[in-house]
Amino acid sequence: xxxxxxxxxxxxxxxxxxxxxxxxxxxxxxxxxxxxxxxxxxxxxxxxxxxxxxxxxxxxxxxxxxxxxxxxxxxxxxxxxxxxxxxxxxxxxxxxxxxxxxxxxxxxxxxxxxxxxxxxxxxxxxxxxxxxxxxxxxxxxxxxxxxxxxxxxxxxxxxxxxxxxxxxxxxxxxxxxxxxxxxxxxxxxxxxxxxxxxxxxxxxxxxxxxxxxxxxxxxxxxxxxxxxxxxxxxxxxxxxxxxxxxxxxxxxxxxxxxxxxxxxxxxxxxxxxxxxxxxxxxxxxxxxxxxxxxxxxxxxxxxxxxxxxxxxxxxxxxxxxxxxxxxxxxxxxxxxxxxxxxxxxxxxxxxxxxxxxxxxxxxxxxxxxxxxxxxxxxxxxxxxxxxxxxxxxxxxxxxxxxxxxxxxxxxxxxxxxxxxxxxxxxxxx
Length: 429
Prior knowledge:
The chain is of the alpha+beta class. Among the domains are: 20-65; 233-326, Trypsin-like serine proteases (Thrombin, subunit H, Beta Barrel), CATH 2.40.10; 332-427, Pdz3 Domain (Roll). It has 9 helices and 20 strands. It has a 6-stranded antiparallel β-barrel. A 6-stranded antiparallel barrel has the order 7-8-9-12-11-10. Strands 14, 15, 16, 17, 18 and 19 form a 6-stranded antiparallel β-sheet that branches. A hairpin with a 4-residue loop joins strand 10 and strand 11. It is globular, with a radius of gyration of 36 Å.
């Protein structure tokens, strides 16, 4: 570098470059911030919406929800089953052996029999659960407290998705929550699935997934017996549940009567009376010595002369009701009270077979359609009605608000006149 160049550099050393920052455009910055925030909100909303829409799809693909199966309870007949005949023959054989063999200690036999009956009762109790209903109440000083009530329920069905229990509605209807306690002490949450206004019974459901595995594997629905057969009269029975008003009480006796009847709206129910002295507030079930359920204890049907004898509704007449409620179907109401036309009346008096109407419920669909006491219902739509129970079974096929054609016979002098009326069924109340 020459001297001239050095000199020139020294001359320009006082010149310095300074970069000035561009001033901030606050409006533009604010606009960009708002746009970014809006985009974030939109993205969040879209993400939530996508999750809500697709989450059930992926959950069902990975963990498909168990569909509820249709609950079907076989119908009963008046025939004596082979196992019932065998049981009766075995009992007669045992009595003859004791009579012939004087070396047998009758007291020992008596003790063994009661030990065996107790074993049956213990096994049957696995189908009984305790329901604890709780709700919030207010006392006189506006202080809130939780009131609880307990009752029993019978495990009647498993539809693959839920365990289903038969209970009395008045014990649980106003409950804010229902706790189901199984025989082994485990608990689950229960909800009312469906109710029956006629009997005052309800089905309480518990999700299978809410029941611990050991309990789930060790409980089975109760076996429902045939309460219509003739040979059950005077047979040994066990009352389990709360026959004395306290939990898990057990009582033994015999079936003293099975001829009573509760004539209710659109249905007649068999009344079973035992010789077991129990509580006026008893609930639970009576079972035979095989542990099969014969009836649901209901003390309001006990006689005035013997109010403390354990009384039950026969299970055979309840099976259609249990099946309907288990499948979450509402009860369709016609609104009549009636009876059968038996063979003797049919032959001697010439009364046509069908459902004989003895009374009409005030304000019912039957009354609105013009059906009267003394009419005989012989057909609903295309279903022929030969008995009052046939009418009940037919109504179970319909749902409320369905219009049906009812064919009936009305007496006119010495003959019967054919009539057809349209009836719009409603929900039973």
